[in-house]
Every structure is written in structure tokens, then in C-alpha cells.
Amino acid sequence: MSEVVIKLENLTKKFGSLIAVNNINISVSRGEIIGLVGPNGAGKTTTIKMIAKLLRPTSGRILVRTNSGELEDLSKISRTLSNMGFLIDIPAFYNMTAYDLLKYFAKLQNYPRDKIESRIDELLEKFDLSEWKHANVNNFSKGMTQKLGLIQALIHDPEIIILDEPQTGLDPLARIKIRQILKELKDQGKTVFVASHLLYEISEICDKIALINHGMILGFDTVENLEKYIKVRTVSCQVLEPIEPQVLGPLIKRMNASLEPYLDKNLDKKISKIPIRFKPDEQAFEIYYDGKEQSLAEILKILVNEFEADFTIVSFSKPRTSRLEMIYEQIIGNDEESSNKLNKVKK
């Protein structure tokens, strides 16, 4: 069994009558990347700030595995947690150079003094900021500042990294780079806790997802296991050549007839009015099927054998991102609907 490094037990935070975090229970194991996902105001940042000791829980407790190897109550630990690194909210730094700033943070976290120089150079190069080493951070762009914030969270080589919206302000190439770095940290056995509303980024890197809304965890598991909460299953069939508009209608009609035994018979019209639709931007058919693994095999067999003259299949898969989007939409959406009904009753 994996070693638990962070454990939230009945964690609750109130601001007056507002319950920002409501009785959260989560265990995070060593070497996992955990995604905390939810809409604005769901309680993500409040949860992270309690782990960072910037906010005190109203009730419940946070257990963290310290340098001694024991799970300890965070509220009873007075010393600096050098095995943890944090990036919270949009970083803001003092009027100093990137080098001076990172050297300050490294010393603050008791990183070996004889290794600070090489550690700074290593991380600046990894995040493509080497040429800005001696530049004043006030001259940094938003994306560069975000990268610097990530570096300061990693400068002391912590075992546990807590990140709040780490992709904020980054361009697409930088986001790809950050995903690679987070995967490298996982491969090193580091534990990463990421709060984000960017479902694609989360789906690409996280081992488990915690869905949070109104301060409560609505689901906490792998994307595959969270699928049991959703009512529909989809498979994406990407084709080699574009489908001409004039042949698309008759083609989908034939596909519906051939695949009918394996399609979703109870498809929610709010999700899609038809079980097969074509996405021109992705050059792919989106097929809503009955959720059975055997059905996937039969669908692929029929498409290859009966529609060889119509298109060439280049990929056939269940897209991880769209699955997470569906899970998010249904679980969070159902929670919002329930909350709205409750509010109407109260009124």
C-alpha cells in the first residue's frame, strides 16, 4: 500500500455564516499527482491555504508526513515544513533580481548553501529563464512571473508540492513544458497537489481527481472510476480525410443503422440529440454508445469492415479530456441543480 503523505480529516473552514470548506476528507499518497477541480468559489484555494498554514481550519485537521517520516498534525508543527513547496494564487515578489529572490527562498528553506548556485541555475534553465537570472522581477511578464513562482516552490527540492492554478498566464508551449516538469516530479517520487479549473491540464497529468463544489468533495478517484457517476459513454473515431458536407448526413444515417444495437438508447437530449455526430475541427465522429467494452469492439469492427470506402480510421479511443468534462458537467451540474432547488425551498 502506498505511503500517505497528506491526509485531510473532516476539514472545515467558515467565514462567518459562509462555509467555504465543508468536512473534506482526502488522503494523498507518495508519488501521486492529485487534481482539485471545481468552479470559482468552490473552496479550492481555501483548502490549499489551510495546508500552507495561511488559514486556520475552523474544525478538522491536516496531517502531513514530515522530515521525520511521521504523519503529524499540521497545527502542532511549529517548525518550517522544508519538505513542502507552495505556489498559491498569482505570485507577487519584492523589487529584486530573480537570482536574489531564489537565493533568499533557498536559504529560508535551509537548502544546503554549497548547492544553492547550481540549484538556481538548474531550475532557471529548466523553465527557460536563464537569461533573466539577474533581471529585476518587476520587469517580468505575467507568464515569466508565474514560472518564477513555480521555481520558488521547487527551489529546496521538496517532497510535497502544492500548486494553485500553476498554468495561469502561461502560453501553450509553456503549459506543455509545465506538464512535462510535473510528470518528471512524479517520476522522482514527489507528490503533487494541483488546484485548477483547466480540465485538459488536469486530465493530462493527474492520477486522481477531487471534484469540489460548495466546499464539499463530490467525487475523489481516477477518471476511469469517476465515470461510474456519468450517464453516457463516448468514443471518438478520428478519420484521415475531411468528410464532405453533402455526404455527411446520409453517411451518419447509415452509421446509425449499422451501429444501432450498440448505441446509447437513453441518451439525454440535453447532452446530444443524436448518438453519432461529426466534429469537423477534430475530423472525428463522436459516438455515444451503451458503455459496454464488448460494444466498443463491435463498433470498431463494423466501422472498419462496412465503411472502408467512406473513410480511413486513424484513431479510435475514449478521449480522457472529454470524459473528464462530462464527469465535471454532470457531477458539478447536478450539485448546482440540487443547491438551487434547496435555495428555492428555503426562500
Strand count, sense and barrel status of the largest sheet are: 6 strands, mixed
Q: List the total number of helices.
A: 10
Q: What is the total tally of β strands?
A: 14
Please, what is the average pLDDT?
A: 87
Oligomer status: single chain
Q: What would CATH call the class of the largest domain?
A: Alpha Beta
pLDDT < 50 runs, ≥5 residues:
341-347
Order of helices and strands, N to C? EEEHEEEHHHEHEHEEHEHEEHEH
Cα-atom radius of gyration = 24 Å
Query: What fraction, in percent, of the residue positions are helical?
Result: 25-40%
Spatial strand order of the main sheet: 6-7-8-3-9-10
CATH-defined topology of the largest domain: Rossmann fold
In angstroms, what separates the terminal alpha carbons? 48 Å
Instruction: Report the principal-axis shape.
Output: globular
CATH-level-2 architecture of the largest domain: 3-Layer(aba) Sandwich
Structural class: alpha/beta
CATH superfamily of the largest domain: P-loop containing nucleotide triphosphate hydrolases
